[in-house]
Every structure is written in C-alpha cells, then in structure tokens.
Amino acid sequence: MTDAFGPPTAERLSAALTTGWLGRASEWLPSCASTNDLAGERARAGAPAGLVIAADSQTAGRGRLGRTWHSPPGANLYLSILLRPSRPAAEIPPLTLLVGGALARALAGLGLAPRLKWPNDVQLLDGTGRRRKAAGILTEMSSAGDRASHVVVGVGLNVNQIDFPPEIAELATSLRRARGGQPLDRVAVLAAFLNQLEPMLADFERVGPAAAVRAFEAYAALPATCRVTAPGRPDERLQGTALGVDPDGALRLQDETGQIHRVLSGELHT
Whole-prediction pTM value? Predict the structure, then answer.
C-alpha cells in the first residue's frame, strides 16, 4: 500500500509533536522482526526514556498471550516506546491501561468513538455496526529488585488497512474503515497519541496506578455483561458483570450471586 501522505520519518514526527521528551528521539525502519525487541536492545544499551521505534512492517510482531500481530507494510502503525518509570515494579502493569487511555483520547480527538476492552484492546465501530479491535498494547518490563530498570510499551494500531486475513476478518477493523474509507496520515496519528500520552505519564509518575485507572475507565466499555476465561484454559471461566478495574489493573467482575471476583489475567468475552 502506498502512503498518500508521504513516508513516515523522524523529521515529520518531530514537527507534529508538542511533547518535551516523548518521541523526540525516534527510529523509523522499513522492516524489522519486532519493534519491542529492538526497543529492549536499545534500553539495555542505555537509550533514554522517550525513544520511539516504529517499523513499516514486522516479520515477528507479537501480541498478548504469545499471539502474533498481523503487520503488513505501508498501512498501519507498529511501534514501541521506551520508558524508565520511577514507580516500583509492582505498580508497572497498569501502565497498559494508561497507554490505552491515551490512545483512546487521541482517537476521540480525531473524531472517532473508541472503547477500551480490558486489558489491552482498543475497539472501534466500523460500517458493520459492531465493535472490532483496532489496536493492541503489549507492555514488557525489565526489573532490578523492586524497581523497573526499563519498560517497553508496544502498540499495534490498524490505521489504513481495509482488508484483513480470513482468520481475523471478523475481529479486526482500522481507523480508515471507521471513518468510512477516509485515509489518515500515520505520522499525524502517532503524534496525536504521543502528545496525549506524555502528560498522562507525568500523572502516573506523581500518583501511580490511580492515574492509569482513571485513564482507562474514561473510555472503558463498562459495566458490561461478559465472561472471562483463563489463559490457555477456555473451560475455566467466570461469568457476570465487569464493573471496573482496581489500582493494580485487576478487573472487578460480579457474578450472578453478587460476589466480586478480582481477575488479574484472562481473556474477556462480551
């Protein structure tokens, strides 16, 4: 797919940013195996917080629970952000919720109506009238004792892709499909996201996971009737109403008896 807005470059991104540090250092690659892996390598080599690594395509992009992330060239955003938060390592997992909230806020600013599905999906309405997945977030932390030495946040966002492989065609959508076929400049979309994310990260540094919960619940599809299955164990399930999230990122689910369950990991089905 040819990018009608011109190739994404660090120079174009820098010109669109209002951030002080986030995204001011960036790499744009024609292809790589995984932007998360590259960002981890840069982190171990001493790269500063705020580095963004983006690729036009990935050959081994991955999502949550070991899944692959479909990464065709020329259409979407595949990127990783290097962070070095000062919060304790135990408080880092809710960063996934915070990043989802920042992305949802950016998409709302572009005229879209995003909803967040716990723990890491961004959904949009497309022409079918159904909510489908437009983005996923994968957070990976390296820790030293009780501190996080660095965190890599990977984001896959379907921007201009129209057609999807059969195995995900019923599940996936893109910003372009949600806008009735109107393409978007990937650099402008990324800049809008980073511009929203930087002040939210500052809020996280000040108050911790409570900032992540606020960011997520502002766009969360909650309360919602749902079931949650354990990773890799679909027969182990909880069913009820998802009410919200706790400061550690756990989902609060109320079953039919009124009991509240805290779900730390699992697959949400609505």
Answer: 0.91
